[in-house]
């Protein structure tokens, strides 16, 4: 999604376009790195992230499924129409328009092409867990297989829960596409 203190041009790439978040650059970088590192296998690319990183991880296997094969999305806001105004409006503008729907993983759930684990904490006050549950519902309606880990009493920082870390690691290890 970017880093603080970057240029306006850097941030303009994903303004009203959270489904992109610089994926073209990331994919180009990974391909360039693989060109000089024969041990890198481009058929087994996976990612994980938390919060905005979780939003991006889900986007990877939905919008860039030809490249990313496996993703673990922790505490992600998968539909910014549910997110806090102060966060979404800075990145998506106001009023809510078609760019919100275009960037929503919920409205694109049928495009899931990789393996996905969704993780949410019941008491997350940063990103409403309903965002993850809406994506789960859309994936079920689209007849897409995925894993869901819901942490009772968990907060936005479910990535710090030892069992969640273990489940993330096992998820990557058990899928042939990432071994």
Automatic annotation (TrEMBL):
Residues 1-159 form the Peptidase S9 prolyl oligopeptidase catalytic domain. One of its GO terms (molecular function) is serine-type peptidase activity. It comes from the Eukaryota. InterPro entries: AB_hydrolase_fold, Peptidase_S9_cat, Serine_Prot_S9B/DPPIV. GO terms for biological process: proteolysis. Coiled coil: none annotated. PANTHER family: BLR1971 PROTEIN, PROTEASE FAMILY S9B,C DIPEPTIDYL-PEPTIDASE IV-RELATED. This is Peptidase S9, prolyl oligopeptidase. It comes from Emericellopsis atlantica.
């Amino acid at each position: 999604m970017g880093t603080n203190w970057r240029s306006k041009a850097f941030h303009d790439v994903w303004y009203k376009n959270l489904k992109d978040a610089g994926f073209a650059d990331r994919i180009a970088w990974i391909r360039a790195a693989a060109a000089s590192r024969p041990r890198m296998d481009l058929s087994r690319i996976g990612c994980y992230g938390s919060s905005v990183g979780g939003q991006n991880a889900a986007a990877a296997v939905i919008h860039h499924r030809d490249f990313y094969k496996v993703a673990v999305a922790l505490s992600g806001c998968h539909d910014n129409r549910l997110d806090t105004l102060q966060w979404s409006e800075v990145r998506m503008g106001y009023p809510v328009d078609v760019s919100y729907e275009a960037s929503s993983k919920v409205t694109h759930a049928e495009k899931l092409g990789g393996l996905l684990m969704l993780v949410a904490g019941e008491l997350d006050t940063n990103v409403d867990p309903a965002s993850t549950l809406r994506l789960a519902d859309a994936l079920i309606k689209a007849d897409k297989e995925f894993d869901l880990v819901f942490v009772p009493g968990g907060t936005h920082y479910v990535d710090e829960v030892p069992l969640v870390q273990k489940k993330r690691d096992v998820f990557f290890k058990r899928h042939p596409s990432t071994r």
